[in-house]
Write a structure and sequence with these properties.
- The protein is α/β, with parallel strands linked by helices.
- The chain has helices at about 15-30, 40, 65-75, 80-90, 105-115, 170, 175-180, 205-220, and strands at about 1-5, 35-40, 95-100, 145-150, 185-190, 190-195.
- Strands 1, 2, 3, 4, 5 and 6 form a six-stranded parallel sheet that branches.
- Helix 1 links the parallel strand 1 (about 1-5) and strand 2 (about 35-40).
């Protein structure tokens, strides 16, 4: 496989960076090809502005969608954006490695998404008709590829369940897993989350266990069942309203989970 790792942590001696380095070692030892974008070391530009669009006339209001679509179609995007898009197209698997800061990803990684996910590349792909929306949420440029988040969180695992103070980790990662990865077509694997990562909480013994768990996940990237998100254009949603059709959710079920399929045999979720 070809694996593209995007790392977002400012400290090269951090747990995130160490796990990224170990991931490269494991994957390459298993015969896979790996490319890494270390966003902080690259000093990756994390804000979208007129400088991203070579044909933009600064005398006019900046319309991000229009300029992004024109730049992608015309081949006039900035070289750093083009390079990241080429890595995404090259890879069979995308892995985002980042610490959870304030219930989300670091700003530099969000900026990477904002700039690299151009109109015509990651969104506004395919045709929109009254009976079919554009190629997104399970379709699109990245269809057939896989993606996974590797996340560190300061709180303990018990903080991130249905009754935990932080809320369910799957809900917290929904905007990323469903809205950023599934949107352009990736099959999204369950995240690899390391909890309780405050300074001093990860000693050598625990680090070795984390690496062992990570190795198992990395060596099964091609066989792990993805999160069973419902695809947009496969009959589960009304058109053009894009509302989940009545009766597809489990009895009494609400929230994000209704947008995942449940195996018919057991009625239980597979992810």
């Amino acid at each position: 496989m070809k694996v593209f790792i995007v790392l977002a942590h400012p400290e090269p001696r951090s747990l995130n960076a160490s796990l990224a380095k170990y991931a490269v070692e494991v994957l390459e030892a298993a015969g896979h090809e790996v490319k890494v974008s270390d966003l902080y070391r690259m000093n990756f530009k994390s804000t979208v502005d007129g400088k991203d669009f070579r044909e933009y006339n600064s005398e006019e209001p900046l319309k991000i969608f229009d300029e992004s679509k024109r730049a992608y179609a015309g081949g006039t995007q900035t070289p750093d954006v083009i390079a990241e898009q080429e890595k995404m197209k090259w890879a069979d698997v995308l892995i985002l490695i980042f610490p959870m800061w304030w219930y989300g990803m670091p700003a530099i990684l969000k900026g990477w998404v904002d700039r690299v996910y151009a109109a015509g590349f990651a969104y506004w792909v395919g045709k929109h008709t009254p009976t079919r929306a554009t190629d997104r949420f399970g379709e699109g440029t990245m269809a057939g590829k896989r993606a996974m988040c590797m996340v560190t969180a300061g709180g303990k695992a018990d903080h991130f369940n249905a009754r935990g103070i932080a809320g369910p980790i799957d809900d917290l990662l929904w905007p990323i897993n469903h809205g950023i990865l599934f949107y352009p077509g990736y099959d999204v694997l369950p995240p690899f989350v390391t909890y309780n990562t405050f300074p001093g909480a990860v000693d050598d013994k625990r680090f070795e266990q984390i690496k062992a768990d990570l190795k198992e996940r990395l060596l099964t990237l091609d066989t792990t069942e993805p999160i069973p998100f419902r695809k947009q254009n496969f009959g589960d949603y009304t058109m053009p309203e894009l509302q989940l059709k009545p009766g597809l959710e489990q009895e009494g079920e609400t929230g994000f989970s209704i947008h995942q399929r449940a195996p018919k045999a057991t009625g239980k979720r597979s992810a």
